[in-house]
Amino acid sequence: MQDEKxxxxxxxxSQPILRVExxxxxxxFYVDQLGFKNVHWGTDExxxxxxxxxxxxxxxxxxxxxxxxxxxxxxxxxxLQDARRRPRRQRDSLRLGSExxxxxxS
Length: 106
Fold this sequence. Notes:
The structure is a single chain. The radius of gyration is 18 Å and the shape is elongated. It has a domain at 11-20 and 31-60 and 68-90. The protein is of the alpha+beta class and 106 residues long. The termini are far apart. It has two helices and five strands; from the N terminus they run βαββββα. It has helices at residues 23-33, 77-85, and strands spanning 11-20, 37-38, 46-51, 54-60, 69-74. Helix content is 19%, strand content 29%.
């Protein structure tokens, strides 16, 4: 039996999640100065600003806790987790951190 090469997991994109102290001042900068658009679902605590193919999440307060965050979207997180569980020689050089978390699942 031949070893079949597993299907690759499509990475949709990534967006930084920036911690902000003043959401209104941050929105004025990104929207008024840089021409981004604020999403319709944004709140005073969490939102996303986008322009062309660029997007940045803005998070006020403790969620960011002064650490760096990034969102990386994949088409199928379970497929990605399965790929990580395969022996190293079968992973196609896939290297990620110790946890793959899926947030905002439907």
